[in-house]
Amino acid sequence: MTKTYRVGLVGCGGMGRHHLRILKDLPEFEIVALCDISQEVVDQAGDEYAVKTRYTDFDHMYQYSSLDLVTVATQTRGHHAPTVAALEQGISVLCEKPIAIDLTEADQMITAAKKSGAKLAINQQNHVNPGIQQAKTMVAEGAIGNVIMVRGRNKAGRKSGNEFMEMGTHVTDMMLCFGGVPTWCSGTIYNGNQLAGPKDIMQAKEMSPGDRDSGLVMGTKAIAHYGFDTGIIGEIHFIDYQPGMNDNYGIDILGSQGQLAVRTAGSAGQNLWHLPRPMEGTPTQLSDWQPVDLPDNLEKEPVITMYQRMTQAIETNTEPPSSGTEGRWAFEMIMGIYQSHREGRRIELPLTNRHHPLEKWH
Fold it and tell me: How far is CA 40 from CA 23, 65, 170, 207, in A?
C-alpha cells in the first residue's frame, strides 16, 4: 500500500499557495495543516484549499498535527526557525530558496537535519528541470566532450543585489549540477558605474520595496568567476536590464567538442539546445544550434519532481535533490561574491566567516 504523506505548510502567501496548488493534485500527499503569522492569511488559504487545521504558531502545528513533511514557504528571513524546529522533531522539510539569510543559519539547518536523520531539501527546482536532467545525461555520454566552463545567465528585471537573493541561487544551483564543488570565487559589484562600497549596502526591501525580505544586499550589477574541484571554471553575471527576460534565464555548458544551452523559465516546452562545435563563430552561424527533444519519462513540472524525489529520499534514506548541503553551496557561491568584492581579491570557498559578508562592512 502506498504511503500518504501528511504535509504541513508554513507561510501561506503567494509562494505558499503555489505549493498548495501543486500538492492538491498529488494523490500521495495530504495537506493536513497550515500555518502563517497572519490569521487572516491562513484562513484565506485554508478556505481556498479546504484545510481545516490552521495555526499561527508553527511549534503548535508540529506538536499536534502528526506531520511527515513540512513545506516552508515564508520569505527568506523566516526560513531558519520553522525549518530547524521541524527537523529537530524528525520532520523532513522542503524549504524555499535561498536556504537562509546567512551561512550561520544555513549551517544550523543542516546540522539539525544530520542530528535527527530527517531530510532537508531546498526548493531550487531547476535541479530536476527536464532540460537540466537531459543535459546531465548528454554530458555523461560525451556529447560535448570534456566540460570546460559553466556560464550562469540571469533573468534581469531586478538590481543585482535583489537578484542575488531571489534568483541567484537557482542559477548557482544549476551550475553546481555540472561544475562540482566550488573552491574559489572572484567577484566584483558595481552600483551604477562605480564600484559598490559600504554606503551602498541596504536591506532588500529598501532596494526593492515590492520584493521579498531577503536581508542585506548591494549593487545594481555584478560579475563573478569560480573554480570547481573538477577543474571546471564558472562565470555568472547579474546585469540590471529592464525589463527582465525569462528566455535568458538558465546556463550554458561549454565543452571541448560542443556546447549545451538550457533555459529554465517555465515548466514545459523546448528548453535544451545543442551546438555540435566548441565555439559559436559569427552571429550568422547561430542557427546551427539544434533543439534537443526531451524523453517522455522526464517530469514536466519540476516542483512535482521535487516532492516525489523527497519521498523517495525519506523511504530509501538517501539525499533528496538540492539537498540542504547543495542548497548551502548554491548560497555560498552568492555570499562569495560579496566577500570577494569586499576584500578586493579572489577568495577561497567555503568561507571561514559564516556571518553575512555585508554585515560588519555595513
Answer: 22, 20, 31, 28
The answer to whether 222 and 187 are in contact (CB under 8 A) is: yes
Judge contact between 156 and 242, C-beta under 8 A: yes
Number of H helices, E strands in the chain: 12, 18
Nearest to 93 by CA among 115, 110, 75: 110
Q: What is the pLDDT of residue 159?
A: 82
Whether 149 contacts 236, CB under 8 Å? no
Domains along the sequence of the chain with CATH = 5-125+302-325 (3.40.50.720), 127-301+329-361 (3.30.360.10)
Residues 107, 354: contact at Cβ < 8 Å?
yes
User: What would the grid cell of residue 104 be?
Assistant: 550561520
User: Mind listing the pLDDT tens digit for each residue in 188-231?
Assistant: 999 999 999 999 999 998 988 888 888 999 999 999 999 999 99
End-to-end Cα distance, the chain: 56
- Cα–Cα distance for residue pair 175/236, rounded to 1 Å: 9
Interior/surface letters 305-318, b for 16+ CB within 10 angstroms, e for the rest: bbbbbbbebbeeee
DSSP secondary structure, 254-303, as one string: EESS-EEEEE-SSSSS--EEEESSSS--SGGGGGG-EE-PPPTTS-S-HH
User: What DSSP line would sit under 225-250, residue for residue?
Assistant: EEEETTS-EEEEEE---SS--GGG-E
Which DSSP string corresponds to 153-195? E---SS-HHHHIIIIIHHHHHHHHHHH-SEEEEEEEEEETTEE
pTM higher than the cut 0.85: yes
> Rounded CA gap, 357 and 222, in Å?
16
Q: For residue 95, what are the β-bridge partners?
A: 72, 122
Give me 131's grid cell: 532540460
What is the tens place of the pLDDT at every residue in 132-165?
999 999 999 999 999 999 999 988 888 877 888 8
Q: What are phi and psi of 152, to 5 degrees?
A: -85, 140
